Amino acid sequence: MRALDIAAQLSSVLASITIVFAIFAYRREVRGQNLSGLFYLHQYLAQPRFAEARRATRTRLAHVPFEEWTESDVDVAFDVALSFEEAALLLGGEVLNDKGRDLMMSSYWGRSILEYYAILKDFMRSPVSPTMTGAQYFPNFTALHAEALAVHGWE
Asked: Which region holds residue 153: left if phi is over 0, alpha if psi is between -120 and 50, else beta?
């Protein structure tokens, strides 16, 4: 009987140690998923088309009234909104866990969402298709903006 008690206690200790190792392995895996998710998101947003559109938006469109935008300017705004729309879809698709998403939203990236949305506010209110405004056409960018606004508290 004594041998069975010792075996049961040993089994319990080994199970506890296994659980601790599993928790550490899981945490390492989650960190790895966040890192690979962040890398994937960065690779997507760093595409030349989107990078150039964001640069043009900050350097040119931010200083030109919306009424004076050319068709090319509207195309640039469309690409910026599209890049954030797709980024929001990636974030919603569990590329990052909640902690990674919170980290992204509380970083400079979250503030930049607010800045770009402010520059594009008239574009987002204007029709981009026969039946939709920019905000309706890019609902995930609009949701990212609301999330960033809740985190950073300014517009």
From this structure: left
Burial of 3 (0-12, 13-18, 19+ CB in 10 A): exposed
70 phi and psi, to 5 degrees? -85, 175
pTM of the prediction?
0.71
CA angle 48, 42, 93 (to 5 degrees): 120
pLDDT tens sequence across 103-121: 777 878 788 889 999 999 9
Greatest CA separation for the chain = 89
Closest CA to 147 of 94, 93, 100, 111: 111
Backbone angles phi, psi at 133, to 5 degrees: -80, 170
Two tokens, residue 60? 């040119």
